[in-house]
Amino acid sequence: MNASLAIAVDGVARSFGNVHAVRDASFEVRAGSVTALIGPNGSGKTTLLLMLATLLKPDAGTIRIAGHDPVKDPRAVRSAMGWMPDVLGSWGSVSVRRTLEITGRLYELSADTSRARAQQLIELVGLESLADQPTRVLSRGQKQRLSLARALVHEPSVLLLDEPASGLDPAARIDLRTLVRRLASEGVAVLVSSHVLAELDEMADAAVYLELGVTASNERVEQSKAQARDWRIRAVDAVQLATALGTLAIVAGAPDHLGTTVSVTGEAEAAQLLARLVGAGVAISAFGPAVGDLEHTFLDLSRTTAEGADR
């Protein structure tokens, strides 16, 4: 296995009776990168993550985590991998600090190392004021921070995150993005599943799209990326903008409080439109895609899948 490949999934499938949760998943995640796992509810994301985390056995296909097979050598995988599920229970009467110390001991760290690591992680995730409080007093967002800290106790080289921003306030979400990017810069491979695509756009280097248990091919993803998309324009003088768009024969949507939308195919065409508007004397105050790259691709893939199912 290529040393830079931290996660390799090939032809993986998993069913529960007649329910085919994952039909055919294939993708790779490289060390030092953040990859988004994207799909609608029921697409198989959680089932796929559970297989990567050694908690479910695939019916078909192969998985390698840091070069190890989670079926044949789950212990080696768990040593290399940090796993943050969507909801992770805690011992309600045990303090945050002691929870992390116990987790360290479960990963066979020494008592001294576990204590030192617990303090590092408490500071890292911003739980200093609650370090010696029982976990039952934590809010949903604070429990998410503790869950992330637990996943990092043994300094894993691969990190699986399922809805990590759930329950976090805006400041904590920014801190999470910063931390994830920092971990990637240190060589950690991160696979993160989230419904908040705007968050992933600011965090991820690459994306895996899962629909009806099947990962979209690179060709389909590239085709979707190339489809026309809405760009939003805002000008100092909205009337002047509307007049200029009419003169240039550009079809635009009805303006709203966010601006005016136009359909554009690719960044080169967007740049040309901006140059033409500026050349016409329009003072542009904002110009950019109406939705992020991941959301645009996801919506187009979902549309083409639905159209295919209707045929």
Q: How does this structure look, described?
A:
- This protein is 40% helix and 24% strand.
- By secondary structure, it is α/β, with parallel strands linked by helices.
- It has two domains: 5-215, Rossmann fold, CATH 3.40.50; 228-310, 2-Layer Sandwich (Alpha-Beta Plaits).
- It has a six-stranded mixed β-sheet, with helices on both faces. A three-stranded antiparallel β-sheet has the order 2-1-4, covered by helices on one side.
- Strand 6, helix 6 and strand 7 (189-193) form a beta-alpha-beta unit.
- Helix 3 crosses helix 4 (111-124).
- It is globular.
- The relative contact order is 0.13.
- The mean pLDDT is 91.
**Main CATH class of the largest domain:** Alpha Beta
Please write the string of helix (H) and strand (E) elements. EEEHEHEHHHEHEHEEHEHEHEH
Discrete helix count: 11
Q: Which architecture of the largest domain per CATH?
A: 3-Layer(aba) Sandwich
The overall number of domains is 2
Largest sheet: 6 strands, mixed
Helix coverage percent of residues? Answer: 25-40%
* Beta content: 15-25%
Name of the CATH homologous superfamily of the largest domain: P-loop containing nucleotide triphosphate hydrolases
Distance between the termini: 40 Å
What low-confidence regions span 5 or more consecutive residues with pLDDT below 50? none
Q: Looking across the biggest beta sheet, what order are the strands in?
A: 5-6-7-3-8-9
